[in-house]
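User: Some background: our group keeps a shared notebook of sequences we're curious about, and every so often someone picks one and asks for a predicted structure to add to the entry. Today it's my turn. The entry only has the sequence so far, pasted here. Could you supply the structure so I can complete it?
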Amino acid sequence: MDSAYLLNLAFNGAVIGLITALAALSITLVFGIARFPNAATGDVATAGAFAGLLGPLLGSGALPIILVGMATSAAVSLLFYVVLFRALAKRSPVASLIASIGMAFFLRAVLTYFIGHDQRVYPLPLVRAVPFGPLRVQAADIQVIVWAGAALAVTFALIHLTPIGKRMRAVADNPDLARSSGINANKVMVVMWVVAGLLAGLAGTLLGVKTVVSPEMGWDLLMPAFAATILGTIGNPLGAVLGGLLIGLAQELSTPLVGFTYKIGVGFLVLLLTLLIRPQGLFAKNSLVR
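Assistant: Of course. Here's the predicted structure to add to the notebook entry:
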């Protein structure tokens, strides 16, 4: 096993880690503000990925695919909140968790009923990998890095540099105090669910750009995203991103040992070890959840 092979595995792990980080950040925002783990995140991402197949009707390239996918996932996420999660806000977080599992299965069933179980690919041009010394970079990798990096930067700017971000952090810290201070919690929730949907949709479409689009892709994305969320500390946005990168690297670098098929199990192993050794996560400070 030479160093070039490991370098390419590490680079691919970082790219996959960015996609995982987007989904983990979506989960973290919902958990930090709505106070429950949203198990529908993966299937919301799948819905966006499938909607992205309509993108070429609006133009060529990855841009319309990604924009259509993000818009669809944001709409689905907001619909889930309006129809279901808003009514469950006053109940136990377990009720919302179970409801999110049910919505995930429902959404996946709808997708497979109308679209089927076949894998799809986006009609993007085939481009040769660009060599950078021993590293070979695909065009899809560059798109993932650019889009994911921009989305993460915008999301963190929204959270830390805007009035609505300040309100989101206030609601996450103390919902009752935020309401008594005049903050419109419903408006905060609407913005949060839209942002969570946009992140999930971007994760789904970028995963489709890099690999294929399938009804099960959301499940394959959800488990590493949950592992990244817990590894990086539940409710910590920066921790979710770092956790996603660590999970992506761990999975790809384990490929020579466990094979391509079983590398997803590494995410579960990291999740179990984190829960056993450091259940508060690696970055317990600066969390949205107090």
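Suggested note for the entry: The two ends are 45 Å apart (CA to CA). The chain has a mean pLDDT of 89.
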